[in-house]
Amino acid sequence: MSGDSAPTNLTNHFLIAMPGMEDAFFAKSVVYLVDHNDQGAMGLMINKAVDISMEALFVKIDLAMPRHDLTASPVLQGGPVHQDRGFVLHDPVFGCSEPEQASPYQSTIRVPGGLDMTTSRDVLEAISTGGGPKRVLVSLGYAAWGEGQLESELKENAWLTVEADAGLIFDAPMDERYDRALGLLGLQAWMISTQAGHA
After folding, report:
1. Which domain holds residue 162?
2. Is 73 among the domain residues?
C-alpha cells in the first residue's frame, strides 16, 4: 500500500458518524471497530437498539435468562450485514494481560487491548446458566468495509475516530452514547455541524 504515511490501524477505536452522514443507517452512529487491516474493517454499532430485550431474545432461542442485570438490556442493531446473526461484545474472559490465551468460547475474536467479540452460541448458554462474561452487549448484524473503503470514507470526513472506551459501551445510556463519544474528543455535535453555508 503506497502513500505518504503508513496506514493507521483503527482496531479498538470508535468511528463516530459526522453530523452530515447521508447514509440513514449510520446517521448519528458510533461503531466499535473489532478489526481493521489492509483487507478492510469490521465493527459493531453500539448506540442503536432493535425492538427486543435480552430477555425476549433468550426466550426466542430457548435459553433461560437468570441474570437480572441483563434482562431489560436492549439488543442492538450492529450493522447492515448478517442481521439474522448475533454478535456478542464482552469483557475479555482472561483480561487484556493474556491475549494469547484462547477464549473458552468456540468462535471469538480477541481485540488487542480491547474487548472480545463472540459469535458462537456457547457464550449465550454460559449467560443462561448465570455465568458468562460480566459485561455483555448483544447485537444483530455487523458493519463491514472492503479494502480501502473505510480509508476513503475517512478522507471524505464521514467519520471521526477516537480510542474506544469500554465504559461508554457498557455503562452509558443508549441515547447518550453518541454525544459521549464526541466528548472523548472534546467535541459537541454543534461544533462540527456541516450545515454552514446553506441558505
Report:
1. 13-189
2. yes
Which amino acid belongs to residue 79? Answer: G
Residue 197 lies in a domain: no
Q: Is the dihedral of CA 43, 48, 53, 56 positive or negative?
A: negative
Residue with cell string 454460559:
126
Which CATH number fits the domain that encloses residue 143? 3.40.1740.10
What is the rounded radius of gyration, in angstroms, for the C-alpha atoms of the chain? 17
Give me the number of domains the chain comprises: 1
- The verdict on pTM exceeding 0.85 is yes
Answer yes or no: are the C-beta atoms of 178 and 30 closer than 8 Å.
yes
In a domain, 113, yes or no: yes
If we measure between CA atoms, which residue out of 51, 55, 52, 43 comes closest to residue 17? Answer: 43
Task: Name the one residue in this structure whose C-alpha cell is 438490556.
Answer: 73
Residue 78: inside a domain, yes or no? yes
Provide the strand spans (E) within 63-122. Answer: 74-77, 81-90, 108-110, 116-118
pLDDT digit string (tens) for 94-136? 654 455 567 789 899 999 889 999 999 999 999 999 989 999 9
Determine the Cα–Cα distance for residues 15 and 89; give it in Å rounded to an integer: 16
Within 13 Å and on the Cβ side, how many CA atoms surround 132?
A: 26
